[in-house]
Amino acid sequence: xxxxxxxxxxxxxxxxxxxxxxxxxxxxxxxxxxxxxxxxxxxxxxxxxxxxxxxxxxxxxxxxxxxxxxxxxxxxxxxxxxxxxxxxxxxxxxxxxxxxxxxxxxxxxxxxxxxxxxxxxxxxxxxxxxxxxxxxxxxxxxxxxxxxxxxxxxxxxxxxxxxxxxxxxxxxxxxxxxxxxxxxxxxxxxxxxxxxxxxxxxxxxxxxxxxxxxxxxxxxxxxxxxxxxxxxxxxxxxxxxxxxxxxxxxxxxxxxxxxxxxxxxxxxxxxxxxxxxxxxxxxxxxxxxxxxxxxxxxxxxxxxxxxxxxxxxxxxxxxxxxxxxxxxxxxxxxxxxxxxxxxxxxxxxxxxxxxxxxxxxxxxxxxxxxxxxxxxxxxxxxxxxxxxxxxxxxxxxxxxxxxxxxxxxxxxxxxxxxxxxxxxxxxxxxxxxxxxxxxxxxxxxxxxxxxxxxxxxxxxxxxxxxxxxxxxxxxxxxxxxxxxxxxxxxxxxxxxxxxxxxxxxxxxxxxxxxxxxxxxxxxxxxxxxxxxxxxxxxxxxxxxxxxxxxxxxxxxxxxxxxxxxxxxxxxxxxxxxxxxxxxxxxxxxxxxxxxxxxxxxxxxxxxxxxxxxxxxxxxxxxxxxxxxxxxxxxxxxxxxxxxxxxxxxxxxxxxxxxxxxxxxxxxxxxxxxxxxxxxxxxxxxxxxxxxxxxxxxxxxxxxxxxxxxxxxxxxxxxxxxxxxxxxxxxxxxxxxxxxxxxxxxxxxxxxxx
Length: 753
Known about the structure:
Distance between the termini: 35 Å
CATH architecture of the largest domain: Alpha-Beta Barrel
CATH topology of the largest domain: TIM Barrel
Number of helices: 22
Structural class: alpha+beta
Strand content: 25-35%
Number of domains: 3
Organism: Kineothrix alysoides
Number of strands: 38
Pfam families: Glyco_hydro_1 (PF00232), MPI_cupin_dom (PF21621), PMI_typeI_cat (PF20511)
Largest sheet: 9 strands, antiparallel
CATH class of the largest domain: Alpha Beta
CATH superfamily of the largest domain: Glycosidases
Shape: elongated
Keywords: Carbohydrate metabolism, Cellulose degradation, Glycosidase, Hydrolase, Polysaccharide degradation
GO biological process, one term: cellulose catabolic process
Catalytic activity: Hydrolysis of terminal, non-reducing beta-D-glucosyl residues with release of beta-D-glucose
């Protein structure tokens, strides 16, 4: 679980939400220039964005209403210092102080980021981060920030994602300022940026008006192992902190931007690989860069799978066809969140904050006036569950900031991607709270207790049947947790888990039903030849004579049969003495009661009922989860070179004399109501229904669990395809079941007490 003082918040950046008000004295940023050059999708710009500079009071009030207690935001360097150095714009200082006071008024703790890419154009004209003086520029800016905001803020972050603003802005040219510099220049720039971080930390501490906490927020894709094997884990770790990217993407590297800050040195592998491109790096530089920090921020969105290859070298696994991805095209990889956090904490040993994580969706306002974003809820639930697991496994993570609160200007993508949990109509500036915001509010209020990792995932348990070849045909155990055949969940959250495992480990899935073992067994019997003449004991007899086993009560549904099909159900003896005499003399023709059957017939077989399934029949059998059978007669069939064992004495002990009237145990179900739960039998062990779905049918699952088998047709259950031969279990508290199509199903459940 998360620590009691875990920080839950949201994050944003100044340029992406504020908009511009040219009367406030603010300066121009490199992103203003980039937009003017037509480098933004659809020719857009951030002149208005979310108009936050005019609407921050209502935005912070909305945060309060949604339960947000912490807000990571950035200042616009060019707004505060229009020339980048020198003159300070007092209007900007007043604006940001009022913003912070408004946050506090709404009981929101500010986490202030000094630089989230709002680089002053005047400084870019002097060479930008490539200029050796850039570290000094940033130090001066940090001093102004400390002097004006440290009385209101305790938490400060120097730089956001240097991998991005160095690489995308100056190596590939995808972001502002849109440059494609020589590799050697980019290494110099990265070194200058890290020195700027160090000098920024010094300025913040020197000029702060009270003790403050300082961190740093890099990013990168996270490697995660294909399996939990030691070899794969080590290979993933090696990939994450190694240097496997091509030179044109070298800035996407964890160790180069974090080792100097937290370990005081550049990684040796990188120094060797890139030695021809490196600037002069002095001991004084490393001491400056590695200023002591209070925490490590980390922005994590996705990652890549790695396995161990020859000589333990990482093998970068291909993604599966159709893999889940966000609207931005980024893969959905909660595993990377878990392993990335673990690897980072093990290497750097600093308290961590996840300073950004979220997903873009193509959200829109629905006809009901709301914004439904279930994919974002699923994404956040999976990632936050992975975060909790990482915390449980020892990572010291102090907080999480969701990216982001408002849909905003998404850099070069303009307004084509929506990351927010609040929808923004960029024409009217109307805010509409999305479903994900209400979901996140519950997560924050409960400190994560509402996450799926802390609750049972009540998914439909689709099962792989157990096939058994018999001397007379075959059986397919569709729903079984019996030791002789234990079904496995074939898909979903519990994929690969045996039904017996779920029964033992997750009893809540089955309504905490009071039974040591899963109580029912559902199987399909395909009889090519006649089955043996047999009888089952009741619970009391089985307990006394079969080492505490259950007896066996069962029922049959005739799925298919030959035209002249029949079953053995009961016998013709009037007294116990007559029954014993007939059996001992082998007078089977006179003893057995054979009954004609047709498709759709349903028969209840109580303990003590002599019975046999004849060849040419396909039967769906629902029974107690017991494999106790006493054979009276088996046609002299051999198994493993020997006649199969008979149980004459025990059979004669338990046979009911006289037999029940067949009318009380048998009915035909072909003319039952459609779109209805038709009860076929209800006894102390189970209730069995037949469902005939004619198009659309909705029911509620109110039992501890419900087994279902499709016996004819196909259709959908809650949007998932089902067809003849499928078997599945609906867990407790599953809620509404929506069936669509044309099909017949047999359902069973333990009887409600």
